[in-house]
Amino acid sequence: MVDFSNDTIWTYVVKAVLIIVFLLTSVLVAIWFERKVVARMQVRPGPNVHGPFGLLQSLADAMKLLLKEDITVRAADKFVYLLAPMISVFCSLLVFAVIPLGPQVTIPFTDISTPAQLTDFPVAVLYILACASLGVYGIVLGGWASGSTYPLLGAVRSTAQVISYELAMGLSLVSVFIMVGSMSTSEIVAHQQDYWLMLPLLPAFVIYVISMIGETNRLPFDLPEAEGELVSGYMTEYSSMKFAWFFLAEYINMINVSAIATTLFLGGWRAPWPLSAVGDGMLNEGWWPILWFLAKMWGFMFLFVWIRGTLLRLRYDQFMKFGWKVLIPFALGWIVCVAVVRGVREFQGWDLQAVGIAIFVVAAVTLLVVQLIPERTPEPTAPPEPEAFDAFAGGYPVPPLPGQRLPASPRAGRPARAGIGAAPAPDEPTAHAGKEAHDE
């Protein structure tokens, strides 16, 4: 792992403050970036009034939320209602503590040399998964404490969603641990000096990308806050800065998962292949690696926006079926393949990567065939004959319910009268005859 022995308490404080400033600034840029990209996809200008290229629009939105009236719902559990957005923001800020932004760097105008990373430890990736899992408590408690129906439904949906896609995300990272032999983020980046892990672990990379979109509640997986069904989901009863905290946590989580994908699959801060060979690796030293890391991370941010502007929201049953019946079995099969290949290479000295790929292809085809096989449906049976319904049984005429039928009318099959004054049929009693029968 990276050596932090020369760092002092003030070094840690300065780096922590810089990370928080970086995340807050990145959120403002991400909001502007998303609006601009979606606007171009929809052939419209997007924000272009406040500041050059509309860059100050995000700042104007932040000030608007800051100055709006802060409303607290009367039926809410006030303590939990205020605590929930703070939990979401706090957990989202913790993830970047173990993300390596670059190698050892020297602070300008000083002789201080420190890693471009706050800290690292042998189980850093487990720490990231723990922070991501705890962040959902903010959503769940916010929906429950609001004392309203729509936020509660959004919170319940979010719980099921995170359980489903957190499993798929964790399983997609197991193959990285098997390949590297460590959960330290700095060691995973160091292992990718010759090749990015995305190349040998492409299926795990695809599973992670899909899972990270579901984890951050983004389209097409934004079911906890589906405005067409739940108004605004778990955020419906929040306003002003409490709403802004949830909004902030969502965008910071997007940055977090993009940084994790960059670190674990795209070589982290290392320059891409043509540039890594320039000047005998000169571009992988100093402050240059931070630029490569940001470029890769913002590539994933563009992917988020691209998917949002392209795909439609799934139905909830489709979403859960995809997570439990496709992603999780697929990830488990890939882990078995990687473990078998890694074990044989370790103990036998054989290079069975091609065999592992073949096993994975067979497993993928089998899974696809199983998904395409139509489900057995029972043979249709004739519906039971509905019983005759007496509309006058209770002494008052009642219309029949679905599935009930009225008895046949005694006038069925008789010819219609020619007009209002037409004579009645020979066998049909007149109104006068009916009256006489009643008098008798």
Automatic annotation (TrEMBL):
What domain of life?
Bacteria
Reaction catalysed by this enzyme: a quinone + NADH + 5 H(+)(in) = a quinol + NAD(+) + 4 H(+)(out)
List where Low complexity composition bias occurs. 407-425
Chain residue ranges for the region called Disordered: 378-440
Pfam families, alphabetically?
NADHdh
Membrane topology designation: Multi-pass membrane protein
List the GO terms this entry assigns under cellular component, sorted alphabetically.
plasma membrane
Q: Could you list this entry's UniProt keywords, alphabetically sorted.
A: Cell membrane, Membrane, NAD, Oxidoreductase, Quinone, Translocase, Transmembrane, Transmembrane helix, Ubiquinone
Q: Does the keyword Transmembrane apply?
A: yes
Query: Which compartment or compartments is the protein found in?
Result: Cell membrane; Membrane
Gene Ontology BP terms: aerobic respiration
Query: Which stretches are transmembrane?
Result: 12-33, 79-101, 121-141, 162-183, 195-214, 243-266, 286-306, 326-344, 350-370
GO molecular function terms here? NADH dehydrogenase activity; oxidoreductase activity, acting on NAD(P)H, quinone or similar compound as acceptor; quinone binding
- Composition bias, Basic and acidic residues: 429-440
EC numbers: 7.1.1.-
Subunit details for this protein?
NDH-1 is composed of 14 different subunits. Subunits NuoA, H, J, K, L, M, N constitute the membrane sector of the complex.
Q: What does this protein do?
A: NDH-1 shuttles electrons from NADH, via FMN and iron-sulfur (Fe-S) centers, to quinones in the respiratory chain. The immediate electron acceptor for the enzyme in this species is believed to be ubiquinone. Couples the redox reaction to proton translocation (for every two electrons transferred, four hydrogen ions are translocated across the cytoplasmic membrane), and thus conserves the redox energy in a proton gradient. This subunit may bind ubiquinone.
NCBIfam families, sorted: PRK06076.1-2, PRK06076.1-4
Return the similarity comment.
Belongs to the complex I subunit 1 family.
Name of this protein: NADH-quinone oxidoreductase subunit H
